[in-house]
Specification:
single chain; 475 residues; mainly alpha; two-stranded antiparallel ribbon; 4 strands
Length: 475
C-alpha cells in the first residue's frame, strides 16, 4: 500500500474486492477488448473483409493488457481510446487495421459503462437480499416479543421486535424490486457513431440500413443484452446513470433508517449491534459499547444520497448530441456510489447477522409505559358499564399527567393503575386493571403481519442471496 499519496478509503477500508474489480482498469480494458471482438465478429458476419485469423488473434489477447504501451501512447496522443486501440494492435498485428472499425470512442467507453452498471447492480441486489434474509429470520424469531413503538420518538403503543424488523426489510425489498425494474430496461448503446446517426456504419455497409441495425443486435447479443437503445446522441442518455444512482440512493436511505433506529435502540439498551470479544468501544471509557458499525452505515449513506445528485445535473447539462463535461464527474460519481453502497451492505449484513436482543430491558420499558397505553382500553371498558365517556376521559387525562409527573420529577414508579383503581368513577379494582395489562393484548396483528411479510420477502431474498459471498465482507 502507498503511504505518500491519497488512497480512497472505499478501496482500503470499505468496499469488497468483487465490487472494486468491476470498476478496475482490468475490467474496463478487457471489456473494451471484448467489445472490439464483438464488433469484428458482427462486421465479418455481415460481409466486411475481416478474417477468422484476425478475430482469433484478437480473442487471444483480450486479457493480457499491455498497459505500458497504452500509457506511453496516451502521453503522445492525449486520447485514451486510441492509445488502447494502438496497444491492442501491437499484440494483434494481423488485426490492427480492423480494430474499432467504424466506431467512435463511446462504442467502448459507454458500452463498458453500461456493462459495469449491470454487473455492479447484481452484486448490490445479492447483498441486499442477504440482509433481507437475515432480517426475515430475525423477525420470525422475535415476531411475538412486545416492545414499545414510537411516533415522534415518543412511546405511542406497542409493536413487536420482529414486526419492527419487517419495516427495515420491507424498504430493502422495495429497493431490490426497483433495481430489478431498472435492470430489466437496461439497453446497450451499441454502435451509434459520432452523433448517434450511425452514418459511418451506413457508409461501411454501402447504405444497407438492415445490416446496420443487425450489427447492433449482434453486438448486444454477444454482450448479454436483449437489445440496444433505439436512438441516442454520441452517448447513451445520462438519465440512465441518474436512474441507477437514484436506486442506489434508495438503498442508502433504507440502510440509513435501519442504522439510525439501531443506534437509538442501543441507547435504550434494547438492541445492540454485534460486539466482538476484543473490540474496544472507546479509548477513554472502557465500558462503552458504541454502535460504530451503524454509525459507519449512516456516514456512508449520507455520502451516497448526496452523490446521487451528480448524474442528475450531468443528465440535464448534456448539450445536444454530447459534451465532455460528463466524463470526469462520471468516472468518480458512478463508481464511488456503487462502492459505497457495497460497503454499506457489507456492514448491514454483518449487523443483521448478529443483533443482540435484551429481553428484560425491553420488558421493563414496556411495563413502565403500558399503563398509559391502556387508558383507551380502560375508557372503553368503563363506557360499556355505563360510564360517561367525556367525564372519564378527563379523569384519565388528569391521572395520567399526575402519574407521569411523579415518574419524571420524583423518580417514583408509574402508579397510574392505583390512581384509577382508587377513583370510584371507574368502578374497577386494581386487579381488574392489572389483569388487562398483558402486553400480548396490545400488539394487534403484529404476529400475523410479520408472517405475511416473510411469506412475501423470503422468496425474493432467496432468489438472490446465494450470490453474496459473506467471506469478503469488510466491517
Amino acid at each position: 500500500m502507498q503511504h505518500d499519496k491519497y488512497v480512497s478509503p472505499l478501496s482500503t477500508r470499505y468496499a469488497s474486492d468483487r465490487m472494486q474489480y468491476i470498476f478496475s482498469d482490468d475490467f474496463k480494458f478487457t471489456t473494451w477488448r471484448k467489445l472490439w471482438v464483438a464488433l469484428a465478429r458482427a462486421e465479418k458476419k455481415l460481409g466486411l473483409n475481416i478474417t477468422d485469423e484476425q478475430i482469433a488473434q484478437m480473442e487471444a489477447h483480450v486479457s493480457d493488457i499491455n498497459y505500458s504501451v497504452a500509457e506511453a501512447r496516451e502521453k503522445e496522443t492525449r486520447h485514451d481510446v486510441m492509445s488502447h486501440v494502438y496497444a491492442y494492435g501491437q499484440l494483434c498485428p494481423k488485426a490492427a487495421g480492423i480494430i474499432h472499425l467504424g466506431a467512435t470512442s463511446c462504442y467502448v467507453g459507454d458500452n463498458e459503462n453500461i456493462i459495469a452498471i449491470r454487473e455492479a447492480s447484481k452484486i448490490v441486489i445479492a447483498k441486499a437480499a442477504k440482509v433481507v434474509k437475515n432480517l426475515c429470520e430475525f423477525a420470525e424469531k422475535y415476531k411475538d416479543m412486545p416492545c414499545l413503538a414510537y411516533t415522534h420518538l415518543q412511546p405511542a403503543q406497542l409493536t413487536t421486535v420482529g414486526k419492527r424488523a419487517t419495516l427495515w426489510a420491507n424498504e430493502l425489498c422495495m429497493d431490490i424490486e426497483e433495481m430489478e425494474h431498472r435492470l430489466a430496461g437496461l439497453k446497450l448503446l451499441g454502435c451509434k457513431g459520432t452523433t448517434g446517426t450511425q452514418a459511418s456504419f451506413v457508409e461501411l455497409f454501402d447504405g444497407d440500413e438492415d445490416k446496420v441495425k443487425e450489427l447492433d443486435r449482434l453486438i448486444a447479443e454477444q454482450m448479454g443484452f436483449d437489445g440496444t437503445v433505439i436512438v441516442s446522441g454520441q452517448t447513451y442518455s445520462r438519465k440512465t446513470d441518474a436512474y441507477f444512482l437514484s436506486v442506489l440512493s434508495g438503498f442508502a436511505q433504507s440502510a440509513y433508517k435501519f442504522a439510525n433506529d439501531m443506534r437509538i435502540l442501543q441507547s435504550f439498551e434494547e438492541l445492540e449491534e454485534p460486539f466482538e470479544t476484543n473490540q474496544i468501544g472507546s479509548s477513554a471509557m472502557p465500558y462503552k459499547r458504541n454502535p460504530m458499525r451503524c454509525e459507519r452505515i449512516c456516514a456512508l449513506a449520507r455520502y451516497v444520497i448526496v452523490d446521487g445528485l451528480n448524474p442528475a445535473f450531468t443528465a440535464g447539462t448534456q448539450w445536444f448530441e454530447r459534451t465532455l463535461d460528463d466524463s470526469a464527474n462520471k468516472r468518480i460519481s458512478i463508481a464511488e456510489a456503487f462502492l459505497a453502497v457495497d460497503a454499506i451492505l457489507n456492514i448491514y449484513i454483518n449487523v443483521t447477522g448478529g443483533i443482540v436482543v435484551n429481553p428484560k430491558v425491553i420488558e421493563r420499558r414496556v411495563n413502565e409505559k403500558l399503563p398509559f397505553m391502556a387508558t383507551e382500553n380502560i375508557l372503553m371498558e368503563c363506557v360499556k358499564k355505563g360510564g360517561d365517556r367525556q367525564e372519564l376521559h378527563e379523569r384519565l387525562r388528569v391521572h395520567s399527567i399526575a402519574a407521569a409527573t411523579a415518574v419524571k420529577q420524583e423518580g417514583k414508579p408509574n402508579d397510574l393503575v392505583t390512581r384509577v383503581a382508587n377513583d370510584r368513577a371507574f368502578g374497577l379494582t386494581e386487579k381488574e386493571i392489572a389483569d388487562s395489562l398483558s402486553p400480548d393484548k396490545f400488539i394487534g396483528r403484529c404476529v400475523s403481519q410479520t408472517r405475511e411479510f416473510i411469506d412475501y420477502a423470503l422468496p425474493l431474498a432467496e432468489k438472490y442471496a446465494g450470490g453474496c459471498e459473506t467471506s469478503e465482507l469488510k466491517v
